[in-house]
Specification:
Strand content: 35-45%
Order of helices and strands: EEEEEEEEHEEEEEEEHEHHEE
Structural class: alpha+beta
Radius of gyration: 28 Å
Distance between the termini: 86 Å
Number of domains: 4
CATH superfamily of the largest domain: Nucleic acid-binding proteins
CATH class of the largest domain: Mainly Beta
Length: 283
């Protein structure tokens, strides 16, 4: 049996030195197991152990009796333990050596990288070194039928794509939050509450909880900014046509009416004939 890096290997104990055990495969390939990696076991020469093989901090092949969370070809949720700008993030693999998730997988925009404590679904891969591979949305298993429209469920952002965010739940549901339904920025691995809005053969769609309220606040600020820049009044109301609203504010007529209604409820605006006016402090 050849030594398989990133996997559990059945190896025989040859002998013990001051700092390590020397192990070998049935093809007489040798590897060191540092005493600190023996999981507090005293190994007897001639006995066999199941050891995980990895590359240490100096790039040397090494063995450990600690059990990793995943091995080559397995997918699993791993937690971010550190972030190195320009390189990537390091994940807790369950052994003394952390696993690199490279910026090649994360992208150059470091503002959307996961932070310490976040979890991401990855696969362990080995080429010249051991690294993690982010699982893309095409490889996420689609599960439907266990959620109901209107449900709010916690998940984490696994993929940020052109179409939007793909949120993965503990139940392994995949929920798409489309770009059109996103305000602000979120990061990979960030935990969010999602409200289910649709069920499709390809999975669920939803909004990040509180989305409509955030929209109303953001859009109402847009309207107030416009009023401030135009002497506190404008010739636009809830009756203004959609084309004009979109041209002036970049909003749908529905979103404009929703935001305008919030301002009216807050007594920040009033309507005079076919115009919207800012309510002055002494009114």
């Amino acid at each position: 049996m050849a030594l398989n890096v990133g996997s559990i290997n059945l190896l025989q104990v040859l002998r013990k030195t001051d700092i390590a055990y020397l192990l070998k495969s049935d093809q007489n390939e040798e590897v060191f197991l540092h005493v600190n990696e023996s999981n507090h076991r005293k190994l007897v020469p001639g006995s066999y152990v199941e050891a995980f093989l990895y590359y240490d901090a100096k790039g040397r092949l090494a063995a450990t009796l600690q059990e990793p969370y995943i091995t080559v070809g397995q997918k699993g949720l791993l937690k971010v333990v550190s972030v190195t700008p320009g390189l990537g993030v390091f994940l807790d693999l369950g052994i003394s050596k952390d696993l690199l998730l490279s910026m090649d997988d994360l992208g150059e925009d470091e503002s959307i990288w996961p932070t310490v404590g976040d979890e991401v679904l990855v696969e362990l891969r080995v080429k010249h070194k051991m690294t993690a591979r982010m699982i893309p949305y095409q490889e996420l298993r689609v599960i439907t039928g266990n959620l109901t429209i209107g449900d709010e469920i916690e998940g984490f952002i696994q993929v940020i794509g052109k179409i939007g965010y793909f949120v993965l739940t503990k139940e392994e549901n995949v929920i798409l939050v489309k770009r059109a339904n996103i305000r602000g920025t979120h990061r990979l691995g960030e935990r969010v509450m999602v409200k289910i809005t649709y069920e499709t053969p390809n999975g669920y769609e939803g909004n990040i909880s509180g989305f409509k309220e955030v929209l109303r606040i953001d859009d109402s600020k847009l309207i107030m900014d416009y009023l401030t820049e135009h002497q506190g009044k404008m010739p636009y109301t809830a009756d203004t046509d959609s084309e004009t609203i979109t041209k002036v504010f970049g909003l749908s007529r529905k979103a404009f009416k929703r935001a305008l209604g919030l301002l009216y409820k807050q007594r920040k605006v009033k309507f005079i004939e076919n115009e919207t006016h800012v309510v002055k402090e002494n009114e």
